[in-house]
Amino acid sequence: MLLRRAARSSWRAAGRRWFGSRSPRVEGAPREKADAVVIGAGVVGLSVGRALAMAGREVIVLEASGSFGTGTSSRNSEVIHAGIYYPANSLKARFCLRGKELLYKYCAEREIPHKRIGKLIVATSDAEIPKLEAIFARGKGNGVEDLEMIEQSRVVEMEPEVRCVKAVLSPSSGIVDSHSLMLSLLGEAESHGTTISYNTTVVGGHVENNRLHLHISETKGLESNTGNSHLQAQLMLTPNLIINSAGLSAVPLAKRFLGLSQSIVPDAYYARGCYFTLAQTRKPPFYRLIYPLPEEGGIGVHVTLDLNGSIKFGPDVEWIDGIDDLACFLNRFDYFVNPDRSAKFYGEIRKYFPNLKDGFLEPGYSGIRPKISGRGQAPLDFIVQGEDVHGVEGLVNLFGIESPGLTSSLAIAEHVISKYIR
Ligand SMILES: Cc1cc2nc3c(=O)[nH]c(=O)nc-3n(C[C@H](O)[C@H](O)[C@H](O)COP(=O)(O)OP(=O)(O)OC[C@H]3O[C@@H](n4cnc5c(N)ncnc54)[C@H](O)[C@@H]3O)c2cc1C
Ligand SMILES: *[C@@H]1O[C@H](CO)[C@@H](O)[C@H](O)[C@H]1NC(C)=O
Ligand SMILES: *[C@@H]1O[C@H](CO)[C@@H](O)[C@H](O)[C@H]1NC(C)=O
């Protein structure tokens, strides 16, 4: 315990000492030790940090931006997924089901705004029915036992605005206020001794004596950098345990871990998803989440309600390339929602919501999916990679944590603790 406290106070002293200095040092940057370091304060990093702290570890969360949850965790549909679409026995299926259960319980116990509003997956033509049946079978196979196949007449009673020929009802799907969730995770992590270091970017690392040494820089010192040129480290930190939960940066960061076998690091791909909101209507036209059948790279331009009852449509899928590492670390993505994209939205949405009037879609926000398979390639599972895979002591990489990562966050944390903490 004393040792741990010492490590922590020396980290803080080092922070003052070195991050205060104006000229960044490269080689010969000061070295410090730490117990458990979590890279990234998104919903996954916060969940893992909290779980580690509650397991008695001395946790430091390193976050490049000035606040928590500024990445994908605040740019998503905020849907608690049931666990329907994912291949049998995949981590996505397992973590989604377990995460859903943990999340409903967590939110209920802490009065975090959430609602089990249910969801309909709709087939809008007879030709789509086999696909709908396949989704139903897959969901049942994954253990989503409450799924129901329902006829059009029942859909009309439940959702008068929705046009379809058949639908799957998923009663356990819901919505959650992700900001309140993260605030709660953060508070509990901190009350168990976690230190969060904002404005602190991990720029790379190297393996020495089979341990990963992290190269760290104050974010401010990087902001004037352009491109991918050498990113200077101001501090080298050697933790006993490192969780790379850097979201969109997890892969580019691992590519900068010198000495880590690069054959086990996947390629990174980025796919933007834009949302359009439904202009103020007197009463929301839907009671539940409404999803068309999945499209490549996403799960279709669906209807999401937030807890205030306002409606958004999205996300679509737009592959983007030419992302450099620094842009990624500093979250300098292009999140602009081009109003022109609404043309495609109108067409897709009217297949199941024919009463959508012209001019009623307004640009909302966008998020970017941390993909590890590209356009036209089969989607891949989450990757949770520890010493058993790459041989580096104490390093756990989390790659490809796209949807259902929000739903899965507590289950990912549970898994990391049970598998990698001795
Ligand atoms: C459009 C869209 C819709 C989605 N909808 C849903 C949904 O409805 N339900 C669901 O369950 N999931 C959904 N998801 C998935 C979910 O949002 C993500 O899986 C989840 O938010 C990932 O959390 P994270 O903590 O891994 O990543 P992030 O939230 O991105 O957090 C990573 C953090 O790491 C920090 N960071 C990055 N690089 C560095 C560095 N070098 N050094 C230090 N810090 C760094 C970032 O600043 C960021 O804060 C959706 C995703 C998208 C894109
Ligand atoms: C992070 O940096 C920003 C901009 O430099 C600054 O305004 C903010 O106070 C910093 N936050 C923390 C927690 O240090
Ligand atoms: C609901 O509306 C309030 C006030 O407009 C806003 O502050 C809040 O963020 C909204 N909540 C959600 C979940 O969108």
From TrEMBL:
Its cofactor is FAD. GO terms for molecular function: (S)-2-hydroxyglutarate dehydrogenase activity. It is an enzyme of class 1 (oxidoreductase). It catalyses: (S)-2-hydroxyglutarate + A = 2-oxoglutarate + AH2. Its EC number is 1.1.99.2. Residues 35-416 form the FAD dependent oxidoreductase domain. Keywords: FAD, Flavoprotein, Oxidoreductase. SUPFAM superfamilies: FAD/NAD(P)-binding domain. The keyword Translocase does not apply. Gene3D superfamilies: D-Amino Acid Oxidase, subunit A, domain 2, FAD/NAD(P)-binding domain. Belongs to the L2HGDH family. This is L-2-hydroxyglutarate dehydrogenase, mitochondrial. It comes from Carex littledalei.
